[in-house]
Amino acid sequence: MTSDASGHPVREHPMWLPDDRLAALRGRTVSVLGEGDVVDTVRAEAARAGMTDATIAADVLILSADDAAAHGLADLPTAGLSAEGFVHDVRDGRVVVAYGGPNGALYGWFHHVRHLALGGGDGTTRHEPLHELRMLDHWDNVAVHPYMGQVERGYADGSVFYEDGMLRDDLSRVERYARLLASIGINRVTINNVNVGRREARLLTDDLGSVERLAAIFRPWGIRTHLSINFASPLTLGDLDTSDPLDPAVQRWWTDAAARVYARIPDFGGFLVKADSEGQPGPYAYGRDHADGANMLARALAPHDGLVHWRAFVYNHRQDWRDRTTDRARAAYDTFAPLDGRFDDNVVLQVKFGPLDFQVREPVSPVIPAMTRTRVALELQVTQEYTGQQQHAVYLGPQWSEILAFRPTGDDGPELAQIIRGGIAAVANVGADAFWTGHPLAQANLYAYGRLAWDPALEPGTILDEWIALTFGEDETTRRGIRSILDDSWRTYESYTAPLGVCFMVSPLKRHYGPDVDGYEYSAWGTYHFADRDGIGVDRTVATGTGYAGQYAEPWASRYESLDTVPDELILFFHHVPYTHRLHSGRTVIQHIYDTHFAGVERVREMVAAWDALQGRLPEDVHARGRERFAEQLRSATEWRDQINTYFWRKSGIADEAGRTIF
């Protein structure tokens, strides 16, 4: 039991798995066939639901696909079923789940829970994940960082793993967390921050027991544990005077380190690495490239079936703002495209969805389709660093769906989801907060991430309906109210913050929360909007700008290059244009800025009213927390509107056509 800001007691929220969602199973019989930790977890889940063990004629039968024919179920479509796949069959009230492997049994169980929450019904469906790797990366620090705190970019209190420099004594909440992740198909978790401090680096050595304890909790839920490591560990933790990846002594150090990990954690997943980025050490210090660094680690892990997730977030963060030829957006492609084909098979290049940094609107990174001979993972951000920090209700499912459906080679080519061979990873958004995610509605983003990582073709609205039904139950007024709040909330947030593909209009001093139009404009981080009296936007064309648009394959290179074809929502990402430039929508750039910011605040007022109308239909602690967050969202959205509109009115000298108040 914890307390809210007013001191009222708040119980730990069950997210989308409240026990009453299992009521339809209570008293029914079940037979779970198979052996192993994960199958035992399914048995425990059935017992939790109040089901009783029975023979093969049980109301719910869960068995391997290989055994289906022997039990008179040869007609089920199980041929070639993957280890994580399952067939769900409901006939005349009897349920059969035929699974390809133990994880498939677990996923089939949770699919049936969803099925019941959405009304049930007879039918046979086959389910397999598109991506083998579906990963969550925690940015949790063991020791409290003096600036970033216990969790970097954490907006939901402390870490569920660590407290005051140590692994928590009571890890029962981690067990409940593992259950929640398994229910949405997550099968990999990195347990510490990619910015690895000296204390966190010791998880690889004398504090390996902490990793072992967490891995033991995640294992029965079909989840493999990964560790972020510091590339300079042989130098900082060992007795070597170098971390050169081509040095045989360094290679032996990592081989021995990997062997020690796997001796204690046989199913350990591998290493996540941030190198030569934002102050983190890497192979550049020794004149080596990123393939050299990644492959050295990959070869230490290869005998154990381990992976290296090597982040492509590499750029110069000490730029001269006066130099318009330097473009942070170009950096990842310029660094990694020449290395395509040089990475070992167990290296996964983890690439952020856009070329900058999880902005509310960016083009899809050209690195992903360029690396045709490299395993690439798409990286998303569930934690809302640049989308309201879980103070604002912003459902990110539509954004991710657009990214996954992007066709890098044109309208007739494959979608991005179909070409990424290294799976999907995302930065986690949970913490020690009683609601797990700070804002109760931010739970929808974690749920949506898992569902889209499993099946990118799912409609974000369908996923939202699932989450609402599981979390809030059958009351139709509640369902409609929450749907109305979240359905278009990403575009609402975009409308009252940074317009038309402009990035980083956020406050550096408030850790990226709230407006600061020029907060990064003259900094060394290299993110600019170049607003002057005549216009706004970054010229990234090949003809007159940084050349970034030319990193795309056709037809996108030409579409982004031309003002005639660049999408409105990205025009200022690719072009510097006059305020009077007319968009495809028919509005001028300046009028678009004014209109959307006024409209965005009005839309937030409607969201607040919709939440207020649910009082009495939601648990009081849920409604109270939401009311607190919506008050902040309206205050912040108003501040965004007034600062952005005032800034551009003063820059341009062009008045709002509607004559509304601008300061």
Compact description:
Helix content is 34%, strand content 13%.
Question: SSE layout and pairings?
Answer:
Layout: E1 2-3, E2 9-10, E3 29-32, H1 37-48, E4 52-53, E5 60-64, H2 65-68, E6 86-91, E7 94-99, H3 102-117, E8 123-127, E9 134-137, E10 140-145, E11 149-151, E12 162-163, E13 166-167, H4 172-183, E14 188-190, H5 198-201, H6 208-218, E15 224-228, H7 233-236, H8 248-264, E16 270-273, H9 290-301, E17 307-311, H10 331-336, E18 347-352, H11 367-370, E19 375-381, H12 397-405, H13 416-419, E20 424-427, H14 443-454, H15 460-472, H16 476-486, H17 489-496, E21 535-536, H18 556-561, H19 571-574, E22 577-578, H20 589-612, H21 620-652
Parallel strand pairs: 3-4, 3-5, 5-7, 9-14, 9-20, 14-15, 15-16, 16-17, 17-18, 18-19, 19-20
Antiparallel strand pairs: 1-2, 6-7, 6-8, 10-11, 12-13, 21-22
What portion of residues belong to β-strands? 5-15%
Shape: globular
Tally of contiguous helical segments:
21
Rg estimate, integer Å:
25 Å
- How can the largest sheet be summarized? 8 strands, parallel, barrel
Characterize the structure shown.
- The chain has 663 residues and is of the alpha/beta class.
- It is 34% helix and 13% strand.
- It is built from 21 helices and 22 strands.
- It has an 8-stranded parallel β-barrel with strand order 9-14-15-16-17-18-19-20. It has a 6-stranded mixed beta sheet with strand order 4-3-5-7-6-8. Strands 1-2 form a two-stranded antiparallel ribbon.
- Helix 11 links the parallel strand 18 and strand 19 (375-381).
- Helix 1 (37-48) packs parallel to helix 3 (102-117) and helix 14 crosses helix 15 (460-472).
- It is globular and about 80 Å long.
- The two termini are 46 Å apart.
- The mean pLDDT is 96.
